[in-house]
Design goal:
This protein has one domain: TIM Barrel (Alpha-Beta Barrel), CATH 3.20.20.70. Helix content is 40%, strand content 13%. The chain is built from twelve helices and nine strands. Strand 3, helix 6 and strand 4 form a beta-alpha-beta unit. Helix 6 packs parallel to helix 7 and helix 7 packs across helix 9. The structure holds iron/sulfur cluster.
């Protein structure tokens, strides 16, 4: 189906609240512009921007706005970044978190395969800066795969002790070549698994690291594929999983394959609970960072809460 018709054929459950031009949304936008910051909410054209920004939360994207990968589903600009990491960016993010009064913040980045440490040091500096300016604020990092630098990067990021370590698996293994050509499904699972061990070596007195991953559905996978990925994540000790509907950003991106119904998302939640995840957020508009604090609290409470 042509892209323009597909947009019109959006099912009613994909309807989102339009961003309000007033109130907290505008305040937050001003704060982000003023700080010279990037958010994945804008860069990835997230459908929840009205709701999240209206509630005063956002997901910060560090290390610039140009990604060295070119995943076919992603709206972020890909290419060769022209600048080195900005040394003051961690401080600017920390100040924004302070002004927003956040109790939990998600920090992600573009992929920076051009950097010797793949950006791990900048993640660590950002975690530390947030913590210094915002004692008590939980920090969740949504990291790239650090291909080729797994253990060094894990050590660098985890020494700064984030509360949640997230890496999105995105889709089934057999779709990687088409959807995420520079990624590696098995290595993504290994990164999540190995993070637990590195954490235990670095912080033996602390509780185990909370790990998290996410999937986008509607990119050519079957429901059995989704359950297979969930089983793989559990086998690699992942605690929290998110599953949401793919929205084709433009005509040039990977074509949408299907609209997954709310009923099917409910089945994913049930299956995820049976598999033993600490928290499963699955729904048409769920994104990795959507209501992230709630996801974390549900998993911490050991309630195996299944929300949304
Ligand atoms: S779901 Fe995440 S990326 Fe989307 S608007 Fe909310 S915080 Fe931003």
């Amino acid at each position: 189906m042509p892209w323009s018709e597909l947009q019109k054929a959006r099912p009613e459950w994909m309807t989102v609240r339009a961003p309000s031009p007033n109130g907290r949304f505008t305040e937050l936008r001003g704060l982000i512009r003023e700080g010279g910051l990037h958010t994945v909410c804008e860069e990835a054209r997230c459908p929840n921007i009205g709701e999240c920004w209206g509630r005063g939360t956002a997901t910060f994207q560090i290390l610039g706005d140009v990604c060295t990968r070119a995943c076919r589903y992603c709206a972020v600009t890909s290419g060769r970044p022209e600048s080195a990491p900005e040394p003051l960016e961690p401080l600017r993010v920390a100040r924004a978190v302070e002004r927003m009064g956040l109790r939990h913040v998600v920090v992600t980045s573009v992929d920076r395969d051009d950097l010797p440490d793949r950006g791990a040091g900048h993640f660590a500096a950002t975690i530390r800066a947030i913590r210094r300016a915002n004692p008590g604020c939980g920090v969740e990092v949504l990291v790239p795969d650090f291909l080729g630098f797994r253990d060094e990067a894990l050590r660098t990021v985890l020494e700064a002790a984030p509360e949640v370590f997230n890496h999105n698996i995105e889709t089934a293994e057999h779709l990687y070549r088409r959807v995420r050509p520079k990624g590696d499904y098995r290595k993504a699972l290994d990164l999540l698994d190995r993070a637990k061990d590195v954490w235990a070596e670095l912080h033996p007195a602390r509780p185990p690291l909370m790990t998290k991953s996410g999937m986008i559905v509607g990119m050519g996978e079957s429901d059995d594929d989704v359950l297979g990925v969930m089983r793989d994540l559990r086998a690699h000790r992942v605690d929290v999983v998110t599953i949401g509907q793919y929205l084709q950003p433009t005509e040039r991106h990977l074509p949408l394959d299907r609209w997954v119904t709310p009923e099917q998302f409910r089945r994913y939640r049930q299956e995820g609970r049976a598999m033993g995840f600490g928290s499963v957020f699955a729904g048409p508009l769920v994104r990795s960072s959507y209501r992230a604090e709630e996801q974390r609290l549900a998993a911490e409470g050991g309630s195996r809460a299944v929300a949304h």
